[in-house]
Specification:
alpha/beta; 31% strand
């Protein structure tokens, strides 16, 4: 299978993502993994195909511009949390299937939350045009069509420090659909 997805994860600590990164690197669709960090003095050894990418702040406009610039695959996966996650069977491929629809630019899915060994369902709701709030819950794994992501980022003119993702979602929704996959595709 072609490596069609570039992943972007926030960096929290050296041991935090060992399991997550290992799992992502075994996924046949994953090409590169970028760990995003505002710290510039991090000295860690990363696996092959895994890179550290300095960003100005956790949710800035500049961060999404860098993500767009470093995406050389048809799709970009952005994880918005700092704790580990685990993908379900063929989750990335399933999300890519949805993104192959012509008017779809971003997908998000239901997921599980695991706390103290107990797994609970964490469903999300369907996005409807006009109902996008800055706290709308898309979950923490978002997959984008790279061409739509890059086009939306090119229209981001304001320089937000804490509202970059919200601005990106607004720009995306102006032209194409944000699609909820009503399947439990990952655990966090």
């Amino acid at each position: 299978m072609n490596k069609t997805v570039t992943c972007f994860l926030p960096y929290g600590s050296e041991n935090q993502f060992d399991k997550t990164i290992s799992e992502l690197l075994t996924c046949p669709s994953i090409d590169q993994i970028f760990l995003l960090s505002a710290q510039t003095d991090i000295k860690i050894e990363l696996p092959d195909r895994c890179h550290l990418l300095p960003v100005s702040s956790a949710d800035s406009t500049e961060k999404y511009k860098q993500i767009a610039q470093h995406t050389d695959t048809p799709y970009a996966l952005i994880y918005t949390q700092t704790h580990p996650f685990e993908l379900g069977y063929m989750a990335v491929e399933r999300m890519c299937d949805y993104l192959s629809a012509p008017q779809c630019c971003m997908v998000y899915a239901d997921h599980y939350q695991v706390a103290e060994g107990v797994q609970k369902n964490a469903p999300v709701i369907d996005y409807q045009p006009g109902s996008l709030r800055d706290d709308f819950n898309f979950g923490s794994v978002l997959l984008y069509k790279a061409s739509a992501l890059k086009e939306a980022v090119s229209r981001m003119k304001a320089d937000y420090q804490f509202a970059g993702l919200y601005d990106l979602r607004l720009k995306l929704s102006q032209k194409e659909a944000l699609v909820h996959i009503n399947e439990y595709l990952y655990s966090e």
